[in-house]
Structure formats: C-alpha cells, structure tokens
Design brief:
The complex is a heterodimer of chains A (622) and B (174).
Chain A: E1 10-14, E2 19-23, H1 27-33, H2 36-47, E3 64-67, E4 80-83, E5 95-97, H3 101-107, E6 112-116, E7 123-128, E8 131-136, H4 145-163, E9 174-177, H5 180-183, E10 191-193, E11 197-199, H6 204-210, E12 213-219, H7 230-245, H8 248-253, H9 258-264, H10 286-292, E13 294-299, E14 309-313, E15 323-324, H11 329-334, H12 344-357, H13 363-376, H14 382-385, H15 394-405, H16 410-414, H17 418-429, H18 433-437, E16 442-443, E17 446-447, H19 488-494, H20 505-516, H21 522-543, H22 578-592, H23 602-607, H24 614-617
Parallel strand pairs in A: 1-6, 7-12
Antiparallel strand pairs in A: 1-2, 3-4, 3-6, 4-5, 7-8, 9-12, 10-11, 13-14, 14-15, 16-17
Chain B: E1 6-9, H1 19-29, E2 40-45, E3 48-52, H2 61-65, E4 71-73, E5 80-82, H3 92-96, E6 103-104, E7 111-112, H4 122-129, E8 135-138, H5 153-165
Antiparallel strand pairs in B: 1-8, 2-3, 4-5, 6-7
Helix pairs in contact in B: 1-4
Classes of the chains: A alpha+beta (622), B alpha+beta (174).
Chain lengths: 622, 174
C-alpha cells in the first residue's frame, strides 16, 4: 500500500521518443527523501550520478522534474517544486512556485513528472484522469506568458469539454509555462504560472526551452490522495490555517511593505546594483501601491489563507494594462531600487515585463543592474549597448529586458546571467576576470535575493548565501546546519509555502506524520533526512560542470561587494565580517559532517546511506 | 417556520483559496476532493476567481427538467436535493440550469448540487472565518431574483475583468 499523502505514480516523459511511461518509488525512498526537492535530488543522482560533470544542463539528457510532496494541497499553501541540473549553478536547485498545477497533477493521480530528451517541435504535456499526452504547441511558441495562459485556458477547456461534454462545466486547468526568455534559453529564465508566479531560481525555464517544452498542463477530477490519519490531518489543517490568519502583516501587505522598509530601516535592499543598500524614498511606501494599483488586496493560492498576494493593475498612463501581483518585496527591489527606479508604476511595469517575457524577476534585473553599473563605470558604452543605460531609465531597462529575452546584441551576452556575462565581457574588453567579477552579486552563479548582509539587520547574515547549496537563493539561506534542515529543506521537500509554515515545528511535523504515517520527527529530519538531501546536493554542486565548476573554500564566499563598507544610511561603514563568515561556515560544515573545505566526509556519506557518492568526492579532498 | 436561506456571493472578494471546496468535500465526501465540491471556484484568468454554486432559482428549472423526479427542493431552506438512487446521470438538470451549475460527480457520475449542508453551509463558515466574506448567508425575501445569479462563471469573469482591470479586462479571457 502506498504511504499516505502520495498518489503513488510518476510520469516519465521521453520527449525525443514521444514516449510516456509511469513509475513508482519504493516506500523507503519516499520515507528518506519525502518529495519535492528531496526526491528530485535523488532522481538526479540515480539518473545522472557519476556523469554529472559532463552533462550540459541544457542538453536533452538533463532530467527536468516537476515534483509535489506528500503535504502538497493538505498543508496550507500548495506549491510544486521544479528541479533538474541547474544551468545556472550546475548543481541542484529545488525551485518552488504556487500553482493549481500542483493540485491538478495530484488529483489526476500523479505525484510528479520527469522529462528527458528534446521534442522535435514545440509541445506541451496534458495530464488528465485518463493519462498523459503530448500536444503540439507550435501555435504557442513565441507568445508571451500572459497570452500563452489566455490561449491555453481556452484551448484546454474546450478540449476537455469535447471529450466529456456531458459532465457539466470544465474548470480551467492548472498550468506552468515559459515565455520567450525560456524559449531562447536565457540561462536564468523562470518557469511561470498564473501570469506572475514563478519558479525563478535555478533557470529551469531555459531547461524547458532546451527541450522544446512550452508548458505543462493538468486537469484532474479525482480525490486528493488518501492520508494515514485523516481525522488528525483535518484538525491540524484547521489549526495550521489559524496560524496563517494570525499573520496579519502578510495578510494585509504581503511582503509589499518592505520595498520601503528594507531600504529605510534595515538597510539591506539592493540599490543600483548593491552599490548602496539604503534609501529613504517614500514613494516606495506601500500605500502608494495599495491606493493606486491594488485591485485585489486578498489574493490566495490553493489552500492558503495567508493571502500575501495582491493583484496590481495599471489603469492609466503609459503602462496602462499591466497586471501583476503585489509586486512582492523581491520585485519591488530588483525591478525597482536595484535599477534606480523609485516609482511604483514603473516598478510594476518592469515586474509585469519580467512575467510576460518569462524572465526571473530577481535574476534578470540583477544582471540588468550589473550591466548598468558597468555602463556607469564606462566599461560598457553606449556603443556596446545601443543606447544610454542610466539608472532609473525605465524605458532603457524595458529595451534591455527584451534584448535579453530575444538574445539580441549585448542581450545575448547578458542572457548568460551575471557571472557568465562578467567573464564574457572581461574577454570582450581584454580585462582580467576579477576586474569584472567584483561588481557581480551572485553566489555559485545564482544572483542573490534582495536581502543584504552588511547591515546585519535583516534575516540574512554573514554566511547565509556563501555556504548554501543553492547559492544566492534567498528562500533557502543558511543559518546553522541543524535548524536549517527543518526550514526550507523540509518545506521544499514536503512542498508547501514558506509563508504558510506555522511557527510551531511541532504542528508541522505532527502534520507530516499524520499525512504519511512515517515515524518522522523534527529531530529525525534535522539529523538524518535533511542532511541527506543537502549532502547529496552539495556533492552534485561540487561536481558541477561542464562549463563552470566552483572551487571549495574560494567560491564558498560572498560576492566582493558584501565586503565593501555600506556608503550611506544609518549603518554607513558596516561590512560583512569575513572572519565571522569563515568561522560560521566551518561550523556549518562541521554540523553536517563535511570536512573543513566543505567536502562530505566518508563516514557522513556512509551514515546517510550515500556510500556510493564517496568515490566521487575523493578528488576534491586534499 | 424556517426562512429560505441563500448564499450571497461576491466574486470580487473571493481570494481564490478554495478552502470552500475542501470544506464542502470534507462534509459531503469524507475527504478533500475539489472537483466533487458542491461549490467550485473557477479562475478563467488569475485574479478573477468566481465561486460557482446553486442559486436556488425561484422556479427551479433543474427540478422541472429531471425526467425521473430525482430532484426535489428542501422544504426548510429551499435547497435542491438529489436522490442519488433515482438519478440516471442523463444531464437534463445540467442543461436546464441557466448557469450550468450541476455537474456529474467524478466518482459515481450522479448529478451533484449544493444542499446548503442542512442549513449550516461549511463553505460559508470557512470563508467567513478567513474574513473574505465572498460567501455570506442571507435570508432573502422574494424581491431578490436569485436566478440572475445562476451564470456561467466565465461570463461572470468577463464582467469582473473589466471592473478590475478596466479596458485591459476585455482582453484577458478568450
């Protein structure tokens, strides 16, 4: 019998051969890796393993994974985890997004999908209760995100109605898709959902593009999978929602109040490519967004009452017709202050543009900010770009975002992401790489989320990004090697939202146990399951390749900018303390049973049941 | 004498959380089953979430249309009650409904319609608890033309789109 919370089946789609098969995992694998990020990492190890360093993430062989977890749809805040070998870090990122696709794939009877190969022409996958099929997507290729979703909603609803006309009205399906950025393999492109939701980190949008896979679509009519202890799950479900409803700040503003607060108060917001982290621009205050642009103040995804999402719409002026969410803090910062933009309407426009083009709204504007700083410093010129790229010039950044999505001119270089673009521009200009990398704000190729460490006043600290197996990903940062495991690593594997997670670890793990029936506790996760997933991610990240590998110690560090004193604001002069970074990184490695250079030790691998990884770690040990 | 009870609906206030679907299916099916919920929230375009459920038309065309008398009205609250033994899954009630609200259950294929949970609708409880108030219970007099609320959710969303997005709203649903 399948353990509770699992549909019990996965889809295995070979796009080259146009073959679709089903497979299942042994219970032991599910108990060890749970779902989402955990199971995805296990799939990657099993299918790629020792060939990891030779596998180009944009080659057909790279498995692209859409994974739910056993708690998806039950625990408030349904999400799905997208993973594979990341073309950005060359490691594994568990990139989650809120979407009804997670619900529909489970009610259609599947826990997830693995894609390999490359379709001859553009396709999308359609999953229903009757199984899965590949559908021609030539007519959708080239369309922006919004238009893709509008067309798919109509087309799939009509297809389903034609097949079963008598059952009543068919709801729109759950859908994830890519925009032009994904199609053109912009390295850090996002997998999109619901016009403005994204699995942003990791660059899995470009992996979809490399496979000619425009979208994944599902409509299930079945029950959610049976759970181990239904009465307990029901009670815990009610209880977990009460915790969501007490989160009044998020219910009212989402993270949208931080566009001002993270600048003015904590001084941890990227301003002009992180040259500063402080601003006191009151135009960025949340009332300016709320009063003028928010048309829905309480917007939720499936089974969520935190409702941190708000729908924004511009109804007048030059950006009329733009629709996006809040923008949340990350996009207020990256599509706003980081580009020197302090006007909410302009900020909403760049955010909407990211959605439509299928760029990651964090990673793409990090690269655009990087380009603007090179322009400011005279390294990139008007001649290189084709126009002036001044801070705060929304139209110029609009043009640049298009050039990146379609890989035109300098956009083709920038589409490689900040780290790789820096190396290319250094080569172009005959400069040493370090002269260009000192302005690149990334860790392991992954552009850093909009929470700085220099002021030490935000939730992010010294080695948060430096030691993380997901590099610059601000949703999976590192604080210590014990408690982290029950945070993002667990949420991404059980697959629910970090903003619906109860403050009570006891409630969350009682919930997990009631759903699955596994003897899971917060302690077992912190000591065994979490470290197993992260250690395997670390091993694959170390192997990296083929175009880029990360050096132990040297690359387990912050970008140079984080060691420059803050030039302005209440924390002027503060820097991230290098000594603390080193000490705490060491402590983190030690807790996880990795050696002082961050290489998993043999006894650790043996203890976690990862003995077969050990021979591959040998060459990294000194 | 119990007054007829009606669930007033305000799609602009619906967050799209679908807890109503989960609560409804828990009550009627014993487990979470969104597509077997008597209330279903449609989302023809993100941001346009439309709760879709029986409006209890004054003349009950679905009850009239049923060829085997499987449908009747609850004498206390005015809900439509389906006799699942009698139902032949012919779909006449679906076709008769101006908003195509009934549907055939994904499990047993029988006509499925909101029964107001015997006077204490679960969907309203969870919606109210979360402070959305997209669904509220009202005791309406005869002047409220409940039938006008029986609409295809895509049509409702088209109106809502213009209300929310202005001119752009005309483009978001094909």
């Amino acid at each position: 019998m399948t353990p509770g919370g699992y549909a019990g089946k996965w889809l295995d789609v070979d796009l080259s051969k146009e073959e679709i098969e089903e497979f299942s995992f042994p219970d032991e694998t599910l108990e060890q890796y749970f779902g989402g990020r955990g199971v995805a990492t296990k799939i990657l190890w099993d299918r790629v393993g020792r060939r990891w360093s030779d596998l180009d993430a944009l080659a057909p062989e790279n498995p692209l994974i859409f994974a739910t977890g056993p708690m998806t749809c039950y625990y408030p805040g349904a999400r799905i985890c997208v993973s594979g070998k990341s073309p950005v870090s060359n490691g594994v990122v568990g990139s989650t997004a809120a979407t009804e696709f997670a619900v529909d794939i489970r009610t259609a009877g599947y826990d997830g999908v693995v894609f390999t190969g490359k379709a001859e022409k553009p396709v999308y996958l359609l999953v229903t209760d009757e199984g899965a099929e590949l559908v021609d997507a030539s007519h959708l290729w080239g369309l922006n995100g919004e238009k893709t979703l509008i067309k798919l909603n109509k087309e799939v609803r009509e297809t389903l109605k034609k097949r079963k006309p008598d059952v009543g009205l068919w709801k729109e399906p759950g859908t994830m898709y890519i925009g032009p950025a994904g199609e053109n393999m912009v390295r850090h492109a996002a997998v999109m959902a619901k016009i403005c939701h994204a699995a942003g980190y990791g660059g899995y949008g470009s992996v979809m593009g490399s496979k000619n896979l425009k979208a994944v679509v599902a409509k299930g009519r079945g029950r959610l999978p049976a759970v181990n202890a239904p009465e307990s799950v029901y009670l815990l479900w009610r209880k977990a929602h009460r915790d969501c409803m007490t989160n009044t700040t998020f219910r009212r503003w989402g993270t949208g109040h931080l566009g001002y607060g993270c600048g003015a108060d904590t001084s941890s917001e990227p301003v002009r490519n992180w040259q500063e982290e402080w601003h006191d621009e009151k135009t960025m205050g949340v009332p300016h967004y709320m009063d003028r642009y928010w048309v829905k103040v309480k917007w939720s995804d499936f089974n969520c009452t935190t409702n941190c999402m708000k729908v924004s719409c511009i109804k007048a002026g030059r950006w009329k017709g733009d629709i996006t969410d809040v923008p949340d803090y990350e996009l207020q910062a990256y599509c706003g202050t980081n580009l020197g933009i302090f006007d909410p309407g302009d900020n909403i426009h760049i955010s909407t543009l990211m959605d439509k083009l299928g760029h990651s709204g964090i990673n793409c504007p990090n690269t655009m900010g990087y380009a603007a700083e090179l322009y400011q410093r005279g390294i990139l010129t008007e001649n290189d770009i084709g126009f002036k790229l001044e801070w705060g010039d929304t139209e110029a950044f609009d043009r640049l975002a298009h050039m990146m999505a379609y890989r035109e001119g300098i956009g083709d270089v920038l589409a490689e992401g900040t780290y790789r673009a820096a190396l290319k521009i250094a080569h172009m200009k005959g400069l040493k790489p370090d002269e260009l990398l000192k302005y690149a704000v990334h860790v392991k190729g992954i552009e850093i989320g909009a929470h700085g460490t220099r002021s030490d006043k935000d939730y992010t600290q010294d080695m948060c990004y430096a030691a993380s197996v997901q590099g610059g990903d601000h949703t999976s940062t590192v604080t210590d090697g014990y408690s982290d495991m029950s945070g993002a690593v667990f949420q991404d594997s059980a697959v629910f939202c970090m903003f619906t997670a109860s403050p009570s670890q006891e409630l969350i793990f009682d919930f997990a146990k009631a759903v699955t029936g596994f003897p899971i506790t917060v302690d077992s996760w912190r000591r065994v399951n979490g470290p197993r997933i992260v250690t395997l991610q670390k091993a694959l990240l170390l192997m990296g390749g083929p175009d880029v590998t990360w050096e132990p110690v040297k690359d387990d560090d912050n970008p140079p900018r984080f060691y420059e004193p803050l030039p302005t604001g209440p924390y002027k002069g503060m820097v991230t303390d290098r000594e603390r970074v080193d000490i705490r990184t060491q402590a983190y490695f030690e807790t996880l049973g990795w050696d002082e250079r961050g290489i998993p030790k043999k006894e650790t691998l043996d203890r976690l049941g990862l003995s077969d990884v050990d021979p591959l770690m040998e060459k990294f040990r000194q | 004498m119990v007054k007829p009870l009606w669930i007033a609906r305000d799609p602009s206030a619906c967050s799209g959380c679908r807890r109503c679907e989960l609560a409804c299916s828990m009550h009627h099916e014993g487990w979470m089953w969104p597509e077997a919920s008597r209330i279903r929230v449609f989302m023809p375009f993100p941001g346009l979430e439309v709760p879709h459920l029986c409006s209890q038309c004054q003349d009950y065309p679905c009850v009239e249309a049923c060829p085997v008398e499987a449908l009747s009205t609850d004498p206390d609250y005015g809900a439509v009650i389906v006799d699942r033994e009698k139902c032949t899954s012919c779909g006449a009630c679906i076709r008769a409904c101006p908003g195509t609200v009934p549907y055939l259950h994904p499990g047993d294929d029988k006509a499925t319609i909101c029964d107001l949970c015997g006077g204490e609708p679960e969907c309203v409880e969870v919606c109210t608890e979360a402070g959305y108030n997209a669904l509220t219970i009202v005791n309406e007099g005869p002047s409220v033309h409940r039938k006008l609320y029986s609409r295809n959710p895509v049509d409702t969303a088209r109106d809502l789109a213009v209300n929310m997005f202005g001119e752009k709203g005309e483009e978001v649903i094909e």
